[in-house]
Specification:
Blueprint: H1 6-18, E1 22-26, E2 32-35, H2 37-42, H3 57-64, H4 71-84, E3 88-94, E4 100-108, E5 117-123, H5 128-137, H6 143-146, E6 152-156, E7 162-165, H7 173-178, H8 184-190, H9 196-211, E8 215-222, E9 228-239, E10 245-254, H10 256-278, E11 282-286, E12 292-295, H11 297-303, H12 307-310, E13 319-321, H13 323-336, E14 345-349, E15 355-366, E16 373-381, H14 383-433, H15 440-474, E17 483-485, H16 487-499, E18 509-513, E19 519-521, H17 523-539, E20 548-553, E21 557-564, H18 571-574, H19 596-606, E22 610-616, E23 620-628
Parallel strand pairs: 18-20
Antiparallel strand pairs: 1-2, 1-5, 3-4, 4-5, 6-7, 6-10, 8-9, 9-10, 11-12, 11-16, 13-14, 14-15, 15-16, 17-19, 20-21, 21-23, 22-23
Helix pairs in contact: 14-15, 15-19, 17-19
Length: 633
Amino acid sequence: MHYLTSDISSDLKLILENISNAILFESGNREIIYVNKRFCELFKIPVDPEHLIGVSCANAANDAKEFFKNPDAFLRLIYQILDNGTAVSNQELIMSDGASVFLDYIPLERRNNEKPAHLWIYKNIKEINHFIQTVNQQRFFYESLLNNIPADIAIFDNNHNYLFVNKTAINNDEKRSWIIGKNDFEYCEKFDKPTEGAQIRKKAFEEAVKTRQTVEFEEVNYDINNDPVYNLRRFFPVIQHDGAFKYIIGYGINITSIKVHEQYTLAREREFKNLIDSMDQMVVTVDDGQLIQYCNPKWTKITGKKQTECEGKKLDIFIKSGKATFKKILTSFIAEGTYTKKKDQAIIIDQKGEKRVVKYYISHFVDHTTRANRYAVFMTDITDQVNAEAEFKKIAKQERRLNELKSNFMNMVSHELRTPLSVILSSTELIELNLDKLNSQQSNSLSVYTDRIIGQVDRMTQLMNDFLFISKVEAGKIGVKPEPIQLVKFLEQITDELYNPWKDNRSLILTVKGEPYDIMADEMMLRHIVVNIINNGFKYSMGKPAPQVRLIFGTEFFQLLVIDEGIGIHDEDKKSLFSPFVRGSNVGEVEGTGLGLLVVKYFVELHKGLVTLKSLPQKGTAVLVTLPAKRYV
C-alpha cells in the first residue's frame, strides 16, 4: 500500500473540508474522529466540525434522527449496519422535508489491531456536478477516504507518472501499488492493454500542463460483455502560489447512462426530423429574431424555395397577404408564449406564381444542441378547401335563389288557380241547385258529374294548400302560433265532423288513455296532422275495418296513434316516404299527391315533436305522432 506524502495529505484534507458529500469518520469505540462542514450543515449542527471530535456517535445519531422522515427506522438502520459490519452503498434515506440522500458505509481496518473504524458518507445526488466543480478548484482528501469516493481519482507528477490512484480507478491492491511512479504506457505494456487510450490521455495531460487549464475529454472502454463504457475525464493542474507547477489531479466519472440517454435522444431527434420531413404540412422553424433556421421538404416543394435560399431570412417576407397579422401573432407568441387566434390564415405564392391559402399555428421548442429557443410554424395548405367553400356558397346562393323562385312560383300558381277553381265550384253548385227542375233520370245523370267536379276541385284545393304550406315552411315564413286547445274535445269534433261515418260508411272509434289535459299548440297545424294521418288510414284500408285512433296522455309528451289494416308499405318505399311527391309503389288507383306526409312531418317538427311509422305489406300501418306536453294552465 502506498501512503501519501505530508504535502499531498494536507491538500487532500483541504479537499475533504469542502467536498459536497457529508462525511463522518468514527473510531471503533464510536467516537468521532473527523466530520466535515457539509455534515454539520446537513444536520444543522451549530458548531465547527473540530468541536465534535471525540463526541459519542451514538448520542449524535440519536440527535440527528429527527432530521429523517422516519426517525426510528433511521436508528434501526444505523445499528443494523454496525452489527453486520459490511459495506453499504447508496442506501436511500428520506429527510423530513422529503428530500433524498444516499448513505455509504465503509468499515476501515486500523493499525495495531485496533477495532475497525467506521466511515459514513451522506450523498446528495443533485450535487454531483457541484462536487466536480469543487474538485476542479481544490484537491484535498485523506488516502483512506479518497479510495472510497465513487469516482476515478489519480494524482500525477509533471512527467505523467502516478503519485496516487484510488480504488475506484484500480480496485486491485497489487496493481494499484505497482503503478505508483509509472505511467499509462507502462501499465498497458505490463497488463497487455491497447495503447490508444494511453495516447489520448498523454495528449490531454500535455495540454493541461502547457495551458495550466483543466482539460476535459471522453474515454470509451469495453466491459467483459464488450459493451461500451463511457467515462468523462478531466486533468486539473495544481499550481503553487509562486506559479510553479505542483502536480495534476485526474478524475473520471462513468457517464455511460448519460451517453446512452444522449444517443437515444439523438435517435429520437432523427426520427422527429424524418417525421417532419415526411409531413404533409409545411414546417418552418425560426429563432427569437424570426429568422428562418429550417424548412421541411413540403415547404420547398410548394414554394420552390430551397432551404439555403430561406435560411437567415425573415419568414414574413414569404407572406403575400395577411403579413401584418402574421407578424403580430408571431411576435406576440415569441414574447409571451401565447396568442389569441383571431385570424390564423395567410396567403403565400407557390412556385407556379399562384396564390395558396394556408392555415397556421405556432409551437415553441428548445434546440437540443444549442439550447436556444426555437419556434415551429406549421402551415396547412387549405386552398382547395377555401375554393370549395367559395363554390359551395355560390351554389347555396343559387339554390336560395331557386328556392325563392320556386316559392314565388308556387304562391303565384296557388293564388292564380284559386279564382278559376272558385268559379268552377260556384258554377257547379248552381247547377246542383237547378237539378230539381230536371226529370229524375237527367238529375241523376248530372249529379254524377257535379259530384266528380266538386271532388276534383276539393282535391286541387288541398294540393294548393299543401304547396303553400311546404313553400312557406321551406322559406321560413311560417311559424307556430300556439293557443289553448282542449285536446279530447278537439279530436272528438274532428271525428264527428269527418269520420262518423266516413264516405264509405265506416265509423272511427277514438280511445283515450291517461289523464287528459289541455295543451298549447297551433290549431291549424294540429288539425292538418290529425286529418291527414286518419285520412290515409281510411284511404289505404278500403274494405277493411275502420282505423283505430288512440290519444295517449303522458307526463312529458302526448301521442296520437293511428292504426289501420290496409295495404301497408314496402320496406324499399319507407326510406323516401316523407319526400315530396313520393308514394308507395302499391297504392294502385288510390288518389294522392305525395305531399301530405311531408306537410305532417314539417308541422310535427315545428312543434319539436317526432313522427314514426311501422308497416307491413297487406298487414297494415301504424303511425305515431309524439308531441311535447306544453300544457295550458
